[in-house]
Here is the input.
Amino acid sequence: MMEVMRRKLLAAARSVALPFFLFLFCFGLFLAYLLFAGFMTVDETYVTYGALYLSILLLFFVFVKAVEGSTIGAYGFLTEGAMKTRTTVVAAVALTTVFSLVALEPGLVTGFSLQPPPTLLVFGFFLFTSPLVAVAQEAVFRGYIFKKLAMRTTLSVGLVVSSMLFALQTTNPFVFSGLSLEGALQYLFGNTFVSFALGITMGLYFYKSGWSLLGPLIVRTGLLLEQNLSPISALSAGWEFTFVFQLMGFAALIVIMNAFIKEPRLLAKKYLDLQVGPKRWRFLRRARWRTEAKRTLRTFAILVIIVISCLVGFQFALGGSVHLAAIPTGSMRPTIYPGALVVVQGVSSPGQIRVGDIIEFSPSWFNGSVVHRVVEVQSNQGSLVYSTKGDNNTSPDVLPVSYANVTGRVVLIVPYVGFLVLSPPLDIALVAVLFMSSLLGSSLKSPKPRIGRRSLG
Here is the structure.
């Protein structure tokens, strides 16, 4: 008995570990491509890029055929019981169109631009590699990794973990060495987080299509072709708006999938084989959406109350002369980095300001407030004035600062939070992420009917 249990546990652990081994092999190929791409010509880069995804697709076949001795039909290809081919193709084209229209919406305000026509080589390259990339990525990250993890753990865990691995696969780790903090944030939001949202959407589509990859493959191919060969693009006011509208596009796809694609039969196993009719199912699903909407609104309300209470309580504890300020520049590095939020407390007398204090002041030589360190306190005609200097600057500020121009002294530094003040579009992006998360949670929480006591007779 113990030997049987041991074998079952080893088989389960092996089954869960295989998706991560496949990811590590694929990620290693991706890193090798990035390392050698800098030494190649443009034509060699094109060829190597195609070879990269051919190799990733080959790895998928090796794991399915040689390692497991299974068939590709078990991982999304030629799946029995999936949606009809014609219905799947029409639905996939419609989803691709919806996403493209939503992503282009900023152009209605900022305008559109026409892209120069690609060369024959570039056109042929993307025409060939788009379906290749779609097949390789969907086979590995949805067909193999997501489905295998979902079967061995839970649907939510499999979807989130496979999407995180997919986001890592599409992230170039070497790019961060030459980027500022703002550039790194822009790259993460514009590439990594978008890839994570794409993985979530395609995984949900794969699951709701009866574990068939046909729909996700058509959508991915269409999106890649639209991204690389579309002659029209929207002029964006900033990366934040581009990110938000991409998330809105994915959210629209999730809403459409929830509304028009039926749940797979697999869910019946969670209900002890209880049969639920179509009317009862629709009723439970609507009740679930109403419950999730109320829960989301209640959560946001609680968070707002907590934030306001903390701010009011903090200000009450330190006194009424406390306010917050965001730091946009790097003049105070390494003490205060750009994007930090500082808490400034007012000072009641000139003598409270000493050398080494970080103060906020409004100088005559600058239109706005400055946060710098006091390096010297001097007496000027009976009044105290302060020489200030940024920690990262080579010389002190142009003129000393009088007490009348001092707003207060910095008493607390909170890194990165100031970006929420400096970039309101970033706030919109974060709200969009929260909305996408709540929408995903609602999609994965299937309504569980009440099951009464079963009779033994």
The first strand starts at residue 112 and ends at 114. DSSP finds twelve helices and nine strands in the chain.
